[in-house]
Amino acid sequence: MLRRASRTLSRTLSLVLWRTLALAALLLGLVGIFVPGLPTVPFLLVAAWAGGRGWPSLERWLLEHPKHGPAIRRWRDHRAVPRSAKWAATATMTLSTAVIALSPAPLSVKVGVPALMLAVGTWLWLRPER
Fold first, then answer.
1. CB neighbours of residue 104 within 10 Å
2. Per the CB 3.0–4.6 Å rule, which of 6, 25, 35, 77 could disulfide with 47?
3. Which has the closest alpha carbon to 125: 76, 91, 95?
């Protein structure tokens, strides 16, 4: 009996954590609609992934969403990123590098952050587009 209660509690806690992650990612994606430079789709990808583990109806809603559903399905099915998204990410990272270079940030930040963005940009451009 105690083992069953423990399993039930564990399952409930797991669902709460997956749903919390899905909701937090969804809210960040919503903020990304209004805040320039904050991406929307990556947060929706996380929301759909977490929703698939603890909130199937949210996952289904995201996959069927008329605007963002195709991007989520494209990523899930092919790990594909549209060229327009690659260019937008590259432009944002380039602008961020310029801002960091002109800032009073320590040299380690001025070198490390752009190096990390270069690695991310390289990975991004190696993803298929369709």
1. 6
2. 25
3. 91
How many whole angstroms from its chain centre is CA 60? 17
Tokens in use for 38? 């904050």
Helical ranges in 35-82 per DSSP H:
41-54, 56-63, 69-78
Q: Which two tokens stand for residue 82?
A: 């549209």
22-34, pLDDT tens digit by residue? 999 999 999 988 9
The radius of gyration of the chain's CA atoms, rounded to the nearest angstrom, is 19
DSSP run (H or E) holding 30 = helix 2-34
Question: Is the separation of the CB atoms in 125 and 87 below 8 Å?
Answer: no
Quick: pLDDT tens for 109-125: 999 999 999 999 999 99
- Please state the pTM of the whole predicted model: 0.75
Q: Give the Cα separation of 125 and 121 in Å (integer).
A: 6
Per-residue three-class SS string for 79-105: CCCCHHHHHHHHHHHHHHHHHHHHCCC
